[in-house]
Amino acid sequence: MYSHQRINQQLMGNIQKSKVIDFGHLQGDIRGGVISFLVAVPLCLGIALASGAPLFSGIIAGIIGAIVIGIFSRSALSISGPEAGLIVVVLGAIESLGSFPAVLLAICLAGVFQIGFGYAKAGIISNFFPSSVIKGMLAGIGIILIIKQIPHLVGYDADAAEEIVLLPNKGIDIIDQFRLAFGQFNVAAIFIAILSLSLLVLWEQPWVKKHRLLKNIPAALVVVVLGVFINELLKVAYPQWALGGNHLVQLPVADSPAAFMQLLTMPDFTQITNPQVYAAALSIALVASLEALLSIEAIDDLDPLKRRTPTNQELKAQGIGNILSGLLGGLPVTSIIVRSSVSINAGARTKVAALLHGTLLLVCVVAIPGVLNMIPWASLASILLITGYKLAPVSTFRQLYRLGKVRFLPFVTTVAAILLTDLLTGIAIGMAVGLFFILRENYRKGHQTDTIKTENGRPLIRIRLGEHVSFLNKAGIVSLLRDAPDNSTIEIDGTQSTYIDRDVLDAIRNFRSTAQSRNIQLIFRRPTASELAVTAQRLNSVRYRNRMQEV
Prior knowledge:
3 domains; single chain; two-stranded antiparallel sheet; 6% strand
């Protein structure tokens, strides 16, 4: 028989599932799918380039991530594809396995591992990340998005990868990029960027949002079309100023079906017995799964309709996506905050946006790659810069600062660590700081102490134990008992405790044997027999009752 709680959960799940596709939001979903598609094209190529893989593998991963995972996932707003956090993992796999086809086999096996994680209910891991760390992750990514777009805004486009590392350990870093960028100004790129940013800010004004015609036109689409128009006009009027080469999107162009097939790479199944393939697969599966779970958590927080994604189902969907991506020659895929947030900001509310995103990517890559190659990077960088600011608004820093250091320090530490290391390392550092405050609060709230002077002059020390008294509270309680003055009364109130650790109970029992020699009267107030029975039943633990009765 189902409990009321389970019935309510099922009803909520059905409601959420029904909202994953809702054609009442079709207009916003179309805007979100189109804009996220435009942003995704150069980023897919950039990640493939940075990973040392064939450029077209990034496009394949983008198509598979959006369409296949979009079909199997129950997330309404997540868009999956190749992600910068997996660049290092892919680079390491290529180096250890010696060939990209062998890495493709590892990606297929990683998908199998992810499906196994889903059936093992590993999706619960995301519930253990504090909201301050999730917000720090979003803000860190937002700040890096802003920083990474500045060189593109002034016309320096040597690095088009969607990197999220401020100070990488090797190669060119962001400081060098700024130095090079501001030494290579491009007038056309700066003009397009200024015009694009002005339009994006203008479109946020209330009168535009209320305008009958303008409110239905995506600002990002206007920016892209205008950027293409200005650059094509410059080619005619002032060809020496026009943008070309890596200042524009550079998509591989296939002029025949045979040429298109040559862009695909197949897995090397002869490596199936190679132990290093399985090691690489496990690495890809772990990193991709953790990033997917964290991204889903963050995207659900951004969801205006506040829906929650079943995380175990998401792991299975990600696994299916990685199996197909590996089979067709694509990079590993995971849920991506940047593209998802671009889609949300453009008005997307259901997974129709993700499906449209992938469909447009597939159709345009096959049919009109030349048109996409006319888009200036300066236009796309403007869109990403505004998206970055929306992920890291000043109001978020101000709000968490007002909530106190318990919330603010894990948040700001996560932001700083992501900027100075990488995404996963930054989250781990933020989690460590958050865990410190959790342990500290647990230590502080394990007990409260009052000292009262009685009429006969004998001090009364009253120790009220908290609801959950763990071994972390043992040191504080032992210190209180040890420092209690002779000829006093100590009253330990455990009536409100649902759990007292065995170590704490042993410490109280041991103190009882020495208290008499110091003329200390020890009173330990326990729950009554009926209260013990009720609590033990609620905790489904007879051992709780036995431990409390021992003291």
